[in-house]
Amino acid sequence: MSKSAKNNSVRIIAGDWRGRRLQVADVPGLRPTGDRCRETLFNWLQPWIVAADCADLFAGTGALGFEAASRGAAAVLMVEKHPRAIAVLRQSIEQLQAQQVTLQAGGAMSLIESLAENSLDLVFVDPPFDSNLGAPVLARLDRQACVRPGGFIYVESPASLQLPPPGGWSSWRDQQLGEVRMQLFRRHLKKDERNLPSPGSDS
After folding, report:
1. Domain count of the chain?
2. Is the pLDDT of residue 190 over 80?
3. Cα–Cα distance between 187 and 145 in angstroms, integer?
4. First to last CA, the chain
5. Percentage of the chain with pLDDT > 90?
């Protein structure tokens, strides 16, 4: 695959749509999460992704959200504000017949305010690297309490940026791959919920 072809498409790694390539919109600064990062992330999430309720707050190419849906997530809310990216995402949803994926136009920060308490198992936060939005989005998600106990927030950021977990959360995984830092935060289970199944589990 040529460099230009790679830059214009993103490949779903595993699941029902394994190997399918999705178009990447011609939007300045749009940076799909690379194959290696996605493979690492979804290896971390493998026990919890099936039947999970997810949100991809800076959908961009949809690489994270479509990968989650391909691997068995029950529902994926994609949030994107750039018109060209939205158009391409709509096209990808139609091509895949991805009935479990919902696309909402708008900004992530305002969208968070509409998320119901304990409504999600997993949230992807991959804003443009020069936006410095990782920390405020993480803080707002925590205040909104939209992630269920035992659920996760994934934040992708420049390698030099390491975010601390909010109160009531733990740093579940933290890894640097090249210029990218991958951080996975997990919300603490309440004392009376510690013996209940984890989000998306079959047990």
Report:
1. 1
2. no
3. 10
4. 42
5. 79
What domain range is 186 assigned to? 3-193
63-70 helix and 83-96 helix, angle to the nearest 10 degrees: 20
- Alpha carbons within 13 A on the beta-carbon side of 50: 9
Residue 52: pLDDT over 60: yes
Mean pLDDT of the chain: 90
CATH of the domain at 150: 3.40.50.150
> Does 199 reside within a domain?
no
Q: Which two tokens stand for residue 130?
A: 């020069």
CA distance 134 to 63: 18
201 domain residue, yes or no: no
Question: Does some domain include residue 198?
Answer: no
Rounded average pLDDT over 111-117 = 96
Task: Let me know if residue 200 belongs to a domain.
Answer: no
Query: Given this model, what pLDDT does residue 191 score?
Result: 59
Residue indicated by tokens 């900004």: 107
> Which pLDDT score is estimated for 179?
92
* CB neighbour class for 147 (10 Å; exposed up to 12, middle 13-18, buried from 19): buried
The pLDDT of 80-106, averaged and rounded, is 96
